[in-house]
Design brief:
six-stranded mixed sheet
């Protein structure tokens, strides 16, 4: 049913939210109703203080094949929302999250599916996964951040190659260019993403989130303004830093080992 197109679950700790695109019959292509459900899921995640990290992945061993072009063609009212403001056509792609999101990528992350993966902070990718601007062959534009985030992640030259040609990029090439954060054996992307998310959950949250925000906010700013923004966010983190310094002085976390986190 339409309401089952997006599933939201949690890991055993309760701190990792798993958002699953559940349309395997169409390779998890996203139509209008599915895009709305994705946006709602991530909006709820951002507002939920008990959830620290989210994972986006696709059911049926594929991430997402992009927008559902059948919904566009059949005039059934399931077409993706197209507007300059509000949610993006694929759902959450215009949202600025306060907490990390990890993409667990199996199979295809192409066209709008690539744009969803680019919206995430990290991408854990299976060995036979593939990326690409496959919408190039149909004359469908990138309007969910692809032309903005792809060059920021892989650099202008590589992004222009992928955008102009629409060629396929495998997992190892994606790792080499920085598009993939990790490559794991087939069938292990979700498990690896959950493990990575759980590691992030053990870290001091305010400092991690503020440093993440500074990385995202510096784009388009002068160096002076970016440094000022970094300092402002850093000052907000100092209370947590003092606690962490005291724990280090007490012998925790020496030699690169993990130190238990007390509070957020």
């Amino acid at each position: 049913s339409e309401s089952d197109a997006v599933l939201v679950t949690r890991d055993p700790t309760g701190e990792v939210l798993i958002v699953t695109i559940n349309r395997p019959r169409v390779r998890n292509a996203v139509d209008g109703p599915t895009a709305r459900l994705l946006a709602e899921a991530f909006r709820s995640f951002d507002a939920d203080s008990s959830a620290k990290v989210a994972i986006l992945w696709g059911a049926g061993h594929t991430f997402c094949a992009g927008a559902d072009l059948r919904a566009v063609a059949d005039g059934s009212g399931r077409m993706n929302r197209i507007s300059p403001d509000g949610d993006g056509p694929m759902g959450p792609t215009r949202m600025k999250m306060a907490k990390p999101v990890i993409a667990a990528v199996a199979g295809s992350a192409v066209a709008g599916g690539l744009e969803l993966a680019l919206w995430c902070d990290l991408r854990v990718v299976e060995a036979t996964a593939r990326f690409g601007v496959f919408c190039r062959r149909w004359g469908v534009p990138l309007i969910d951040g692809g032309t903005v985030r792809l060059p920021r992640i892989v650099g202008h030259g590589r992004a222009m190659d992928l955008v102009l040609t629409g060629r396929e990029v495998g997992a190892e090439e994606a790792l080499a260019m920085g598009l993939a954060s990790r490559v794991v054996p087939d069938g292990q992307s979700l498990e690896a993403a959950v493990k990575l998310a759980q590691q992030l959950c053990t870290l001091p949250q305010r400092c991690m989130r503020n440093d993440r925000a500074s990385v995202l906010d510096q784009w388009g700013k002068s160096e002076e303004d970016a440094l000022a923004g970094e300092f402002e966010l850093g000052m907000d983190s100092l209370a947590e830093a003092q606690t962490g310094a005291a724990r280090f002085a007490a012998g925790m976390g020496r030699g690169g080992s993990a130190a238990p986190v007390g509070t957020n």
